[in-house]
Design brief:
- By secondary structure, the chain is an alpha+beta fold.
- The chain has three domains: 3-62, Winged helix-like DNA-binding domain superfamily/Winged helix DNA-binding domain (Arc Repressor Mutant, subunit A); 69-274, Bira Bifunctional Protein, Domain 2 (BirA Bifunctional Protein, domain 2, 2-Layer Sandwich); 278-324, SH3 type barrels.
- The protein is built from nine helices and 14 strands.
- It has helices spanning 3-15, 22-29, 33-45, 69-75, 94-103, 153-169, 231-235, 241-262, 269-275; strands at residues 49-53, 57-62, 85-88, 111-114, 136-142, 175-178, 182-185, 188-200, 203-213, 282-286, 292-299, 305-308, 314-317, 321-324.
- A seven-stranded mixed β-sheet has the order 3-4-5-9-8-7-6, sandwiched between helices. It has a five-stranded antiparallel β-sheet with strand order 13-12-11-10-14. Strands 1-2 form a two-stranded antiparallel sheet.
- Helix 1 crosses helix 4 and helix 6 crosses helix 8.
Length: 331
Amino acid sequence: MAVSTKAEILKAIRNSSDHISGQELCEQLGVSRTAVWKVIKQLQAEGYDIEAVTNKGYRLLSYPDVLSGSELMSRMNTKWAGQRVYFRKETESTNEDAKYMAEEGKEHGSLVVADAQTAGRGRRGRSWESPPGQDIYMSLLLRPDFSPEKASMLTLLMAVSVAEVINGLYPDMKVNIKWPNDILVGERKICGILTEMNAEPDYIHNVIIGVGINVNRKDFPPEIEEFATSLRLVHGEMIDRAQIIVGIMDYFEYYYGIFAERLDVSDFVHIYDGYLVNRGREVRVLDPKGEYSGVAEGINDKGELIVKLPDGSSTTVASGEVSVRGIYGYV
């Protein structure tokens, strides 16, 4: 049974306010009664509590905390972002998987999600620990039709999307963004974003945005436990990973549509700055031409960080690492 058919049947049952008959499912989805019955049995075996009543049909009473292609696709409400989910129980890297998919011609908005990664990566080649059954590891394939110099702003759109979802679902958490793409709860990191582009000087072949979120893990290696946390550790209860992923796709698709009209982040500056933990704080910019310090004032329409220097003038930072006093133990 194809994942898409299974997802469609699950979505129809999930979205029905009452029982939905097998005949209705057949007519809606163009599948046989036998196919419907097989999917229902599969779902029940996976832990979905589906009530089957003669002459009434099927109703979803409860569902397990699972991460699968069918579960995610059955909950997606987007037009293109995450409408095709490629789920892996384990993979080396979702970003690498998305690159292969791009070469194979997979469509804009395809989403790779893994339950575990064996070779996850962060910025500058750093490893990203990715144990199974706990967190979110996903990569979104994009095929933009704008020039390469605009692509870096997509990272900020994803950062805002992640922050908005967590803030909306768990308002008890203090969600922050460390420019440009780390998501924090309080002053501890819960999410990293890695954006990679395949382009020519004037043309983008594809952009891959990888997202790793500490969701349900309860401990960290000694070298990072001081500055990392998870949503579960802060919230105190298990978190629905699928709900987070679906929410991020909703926000990202919405923001991407607005961004594509102007090709800048002018519509999002106030939202981003509202989460920006660096704002009003001293930062140290690690520029290859020479390090310098200043006070972060927010971002501009290009997504660059505005830094006020000691002499009162301002400069902008488009790339490189920004160290924030008091965050991650940075001085």
